[in-house]
Amino acid sequence: MESEQDAQIVLGPDGTILAVTGQLPPGLVDVRLEDCHELSREIRDAGKSLLEALRHSDKRMAVRALAVHPGSHLQLLAIEAAPIRRAATDVRALLA
After folding, report:
1. What is the pLDDT of residue 1?
2. Which strands make up the sheet holding 72-79, listed edge to edge?
3. Angle CA(14)–CA(15)–CA(17) in degrees, nearest 5?
């Protein structure tokens, strides 16, 4: 069962944070995990290790759980998929 103290960080294959949950600040999204000095070295190293495991795996997702503080857990998820974001597109420029 997930508590209020649980959080998740979803990473893309290049280490960019795609999403966060729990008490983590939303400003972490779109930043590379290795550049997030707000997060502990332990979390950044675990993310780096997880991304390495994903690269050498035949699976499209890898997961690692960390006990950050007593009663507080963090789940790191690394996914192979690329994020798709909506953006305005000038169709005239595409057709020119």
Report:
1. 40
2. 17-20, 7-11, 72-79, 61-69
3. 120
The 3 state secondary structure assigned to the chain is CCCCCCEEEEECCCCEEEEECCCCCHHHCCCEHHHCCCCCHHHHHHHHHHHHHHHCCCCCEEEEEEEEECCEEEEEEEECCCCCCCCCCCHHHHHC
For 84-95, write each residue's pLDDT tens digit: 777 888 888 888
Q: How far is CA 80 from CA 13, 24, 35, 83, in A?
A: 5, 22, 20, 10
What Rg value do the Cα atoms of the chain yield, rounded?
16
How far does the chain reach from its first CA to its final CA, in angstroms?
A: 55
Output the pLDDT for position 69.
76
